[in-house]
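Why do we bother with a discrete structure alphabet at all? Because it lets us treat a fold like text: something you can write down, compare, and reason about line by line. To make this less abstract, here is a complete entry for Secernin 3. Read it the way you would read a sentence in a foreign language you are learning: slowly, and without expecting to understand everything at once.
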Amino acid sequence: MQPYSCDTFVALPPATVGNRVIFGKNSDRLFDEVQEVIYFPAAVHSDLEKRLKCTYIEVDQVPETYAVVLSRPAWLWGAEMGANEHGVCIGNEAIWGREDISKEEALLGMDLVRLGLERADTAEKALNVIVDLLGKYGQGGNCAEGEEFSYYNSFLIADRNEAWILETSGKFWAAEKVQGVRNISNQFSITTKIDREHPDMRNYAKQRGWWDGKEEFDFAAAYSYTDTATMMTSPSRYCQGHKLLNKHKGNITYETMVEILRDRPSGINMKGEFLTTASMVSILPQDPSLPCIHLLTGTPHPERSVFKPFIFVPHVSPLLDTKSPTFELERPVAKKPYVKPDRRHLLYQNHQQALEMISNHKLKLEAFWSWFCSPWQYLQEPQSGALGHLHTPHCS
């Protein structure tokens, strides 16, 4: 499969309006994959000998987990993006580099998103959770249901006060603290501004011949195929997203982020074999007395989807309309040929029906105008009768 991924964005004051952090992400996945929006309450775990089952492997449980709202492919345990009750938001991206991708089943990047949200009450603590789990359990395994698709991961982690970029290659990683605005896509983007790193990351690059040990260390140059000198001049979604954020820098609002996620010319709003299957925008006020507001689509096509608000309050009702009816923790490729079950939740079904109605209406209009604009509907030469004096209308 061709390397496709998602786009995740963050804007911090003073790039935003109203002393708030704005987080946004498009999840670009296989066109027929259903993404659900699901809530899990906070929990206390007294039996720590009972291990936690993630998508493929089990990990140690922790004494307490926080409430989370997740947007996730309905076949797996983790999440493409989400938030927790403390205002921490995480989105992840697929990235490819020089290190071979491990096909051994370990933690998916999407598992690490959920684990970070459930176990951390700040962005930097979530970063610590992810890198600790990465070091202990590793990352790997099939990332698509019934398809061969594996990758390493980058993460954008934000809270009310700060944001971090975390990029990984196998067990190695580098992290950058965000200033102003930042985005990630399906490529390495951390270069020489490295605020935290794996202790052996530079030595490993030197041993592999990716860095001579003399020039200033550039993480993207060492671990990826990307020419960092041209990274900001290419037509990639990463470059286009950077331009869109900086175009509105100083005036970024929730509406701005929604428009960026809906942008088609940049490719951020993706169509085709891979398309934007779900989107999320979060408003994180720096004033702790104000609630964080998380808006999720739960459906494909952000330009046609409504961003629906979610706020962490006591006694949250189950999100029944966005929960897949056929979730189960099975091996996605255990049976061949693999037949995907129907995972469409009620909102997804209604959205697809509305889309079909719009498409049918559009086809009918196109058929009418095709007939109306056809020169064969009118007499070519003036003749007797009313129609004889009409000319073929100009249609474009």
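What the structure line is telling us, in plain words: Residues 346-372 form the longest helix (27 residues). Residues 38 and 70 are 5 Å apart (CA to CA).
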